[in-house]
Amino acid sequence: MPDTLQLCMRTVCASRTFSYRRHTPYMVQPEYRIYEMNKRLQSRTEDSDNLWWDAFATEFFEDDATLTLSFCLEDGPKRYTIGRTLIPRYFSTVFEGGVTDLYYILKHSKESYHNSSITVDCDQCTMVTQHGKPMFTKVCTEGRLILEFTFDDLMRIKTWHFTIRQYRELVPRSILAMHAQDPQVLEQLSKNITRMGLTNFTLNYLRLCVILEPMQELMSRHKTYNLSPRDCLKTCLFQKWQRMVAPPAEPTRQPTTKRRKRKNSTSSTSNSSAGNNANSTNSKKKSAAANLSLSSQVPELGALQSCSLNPGRDGALCHSTAVTPTGQFKEKH
Predict the structure, then answer these.
(1) Which segments show compositional bias classed as Low complexity (predicted)?
(2) For residue 107, what are the contacts with CB-CB under 8 A and spacing of at least 6?
(3) How far is the C-alpha of 270 from the C-alpha of 308, rounded, in Å?
(4) Which of 50, 78, 79 lies closest to 67, judged by CA?
C-alpha cells in the first residue's frame, strides 16, 4: 500500500511539473532577432577580429543579403547599398570610429508575412551609439527601418534598409559642469562628432564601397581561379560582352497541322493540270526576275563591306566581298 501511494504522488508531481512548462515556439518573432543581434554586439570585445565579424554576419544575414543606408548630408541626399561580403566590415567600422556600444530600438513595428519572407516595417527606429572618444557622448539616430527576413528556422535578414531622418547628440550635464569655466572646452563640446549619426570612419567606408561593390565579381573570380587581376578583368568583360551580343532565346512554336480538304474525283484531274501549268508559269517568272535583278539591275560590281575578328592574309580585320554580274561572290582582301 505505501508503494502504491508513493507511486501516485510521483505521478501527480510529474504532471504538475509538465503543466508548468511552456512549449518552445517553432519560430521566434522578427523583433526578437534584433534583440539577439543587440546582445551579440554587446558581447564584442576589443580583440574581435575579422573572423568574429564574419561569424556575426553569417548568423544574422543571408548569403545574398543587402544593406542600404539613406540619409541627407550638406551636399545632398545619399544612398549606399552594400552586399553580403561588405556587411561585416561596415559594423566593424562603427566601433573603429570611437563607438563602445551599439544597439537598435524598434517601436510600433508592423509585420507582414509572405510565402517565403517576413517584412518588418518600423517607422520609429532608433540606432543608439555610445561614444567614448573624442568625448563621452550618446548619439540617437532616428529613422525608418525596413527588414526582410527569410521565413525559415534560421530567420536571417535578407534586406536591410535604414532611412535616417534626424539625430541627437547627448552630452552628460556632469561633463558640462566640470568645464563650465573653460570656454575652449565648452566650444569643443558644442561641436558635433558625427554626421547624421554616422562617424567619419563609417562614411569613408561607404564611399569606398561605391568602388568595391562592382569589383566583387573580380575578387571572387581571383579567389576561385587564382587568376591575375588583368586576366580576371578580361574574362569578366568577355562574358559580359557575350551576354550583350547573344540573341534572345526564341520561344518554341508548336507545329500547326493543316487539314486537307476532300475534293471530287471528277474535278481533281482538271485542278491538278491547271495547278501544274500555274506552277510552271510562276517558276519561269521567278527565274526571269532573278536573272533580271542580277544582270540588268546591277551591271556594276556591288561591294559589301564586312568586318571580322579573325585577320586576313595581310593582317587586316576587314575584308570586302564583291558580287559579279553573273551572281557569283568573290572575296577581295
Answers:
(1) 265-292
(2) 122, 124, 125, 126
(3) 55
(4) 79
Whether 205 contacts 174, CB under 8 Å: no
pLDDT at residue 326, as a whole number:
46
- Provide the pLDDT confidence category of residue 281 given band limits of 50, 70 and 90: low
0.90 exceeded by the pTM?
no
Position 292 scores a pLDDT of 42
How far apart are alpha carbons 30 and 19 in whole angstroms? 28
Report the sign of the C-alpha dihedral through residues 176, 178, 180, 183, in that order.
negative
Residues of the chain above pLDDT 70, percent: 66
Closest CA to 147 of 132, 155, 157: 157
User: DSSP H helical segments within the chain, as ranges?
Assistant: 2-19, 30-42, 50-60, 87-96, 173-178, 183-189, 200-212, 216-225, 229-245, 265-291
CA dist., res. 303 & res. 316, Å (int):
17
Question: Under DSSP, is residue 66 helix (H, G, I), strand (E, B) or coil?
Answer: strand
DSSP one-letter code for 253:
P
pLDDT digit string (tens) for 286-322?
Answer: 444 444 443 344 343 343 333 334 444 444 444 444 4
Each residue's pLDDT tens digit, 231-243:
888 888 888 888 8
Q: Is the peptide bond before 214 cis (omega within 30 degrees of 0)?
A: no
